[in-house]
Amino acid sequence: MPKDLSKYGRLVKHANNTLRRHIDTFAAGYGLTGVQLSIIDFLGKYPQQMCLQRDIETEFAIRRSSATTLLQRMEKKGLILRLVAKDDARQKEIQLTKKVQPFVQLNRDYMKAQRDSLETNFSQEELLTFTKVLQFLIIDEVGKNYGKERER
After folding, report:
1. If you average pLDDT over residues 103-109, what whole number do you get?
2. pTM reported for the whole predicted model
């Protein structure tokens, strides 16, 4: 087991960059970005539910300003509608347009191929461990105690 823990961070970063590049390349073939395709996928999973901008901010762990810019660009391309929410005029409800319906299934097929590749190459136990490590990193357990020893 490597003693240099910084290798883990670099590997996670490298994997993230590679995955992002793959989805960006795939999405570019349809005039989209990988992030736009991910938003379409998210909205497409719950077509009957109201989705607010803040739901997208939470799901993708992005700031309000980033979400606003992203969604405004998607609206200009005719991919989504941004409507005033019925319950709170300060909120924006996000809906897919009919134009993007083909992309919902296209993205599902792409994601299924990704998942199938992982499931072919790794055991269920390995994938559960991998998921556990990623969830640990997402809640930042690694960084929570950084510098605490010096504070004492």
Report:
1. 91
2. 0.79
